[in-house]
Amino acid sequence: ATAGLLTQFNRQSRQIDRLVKLADASEEKLTRANASLSSLTRNLARFVPQTVVDTLMKCGYEQVASTQRRQLTVFFSDIVDFTGMTEKLEPEQLAKFLMEYFSEMNRLCVRWGGTLDQFIGDAIVIFFGAPKSRGAQTDSQNAVGMALEMQDRLQALRVKWAEDGLSPPVHVRMGLATGYATVGNFGSDSRLHYTAIGNVVNSAARIQALAAAD
Asked: 210 vs 60, 119, 122, 213, 214, CA distance in Å?
């Protein structure tokens, strides 16, 4: 699905470039083409991190196509005893809970300028420093700021979830690590995933596993 959207995105972008260059291109055609591209961009952002979509829009596909060695701050989070939760909740309840939880956490990821790597079950992986960096120190500070705000937001969400009948309370462990990693598109010739690989990613995961709840 992601590869198809990227192909469609690039095709639509080239079409708009041709329309702009044509002297007889009508305003109506351009309006329709721009509306189509806007819709495609919104759909693409549901499968590809927003930071990657923004880079595609501004710099083109080449900026994120190749792998690079970058200094990152990596964030890992995990819900305490999620397996126990899955045994107590109906599938519909679990799906609704995860959708709300991931949506709230992703909103904060975007606000602080992080790149959402992936959701793994109940785990969240985010990194700062690619495809765009604000400097290593600022990237790290933003990652910490995001994590702290996530914990604050979880306090409010626990009250809401308790009122909705979700039991037991949800507690989350978080880990952060800064270091160098290889970042770019990895995968097969038909499906790619923009991600980071390296010891810093493993370190963030280990720190999360050792962290106390909340």
From this structure: 40, 20, 17, 9, 12
The better pLDDT of the pair 11, 176 is held by: 176
Rounded-to-integer distance, Cα 181 and Cα 17, Å:
35
Beta strand segments in 2-156, E = 68-79, 115-120, 123-128
Residue-level pLDDT at 39 = 64
pLDDT digits (tens, 9 = 90+) for 86-95: 888 889 989 9
In the numeric block, the tokens 């083409």 are attached to: 33
- 15-20's contacts with Cβ under 8 Å and 24+ in sequence apart are none
Closest CA to 173 of 134, 214, 136, 145: 214
Give the HSE-up count for residue 155: Cα atoms under 13 Å, Cβ half-sphere. Answer: 6
Region 146-154: mean pLDDT is 98
The pTM of the full predicted model, rounded to 2 decimals, is: 0.75
- The rounded distance, in Å, linking the Cα atoms of 135 and 211 is 27
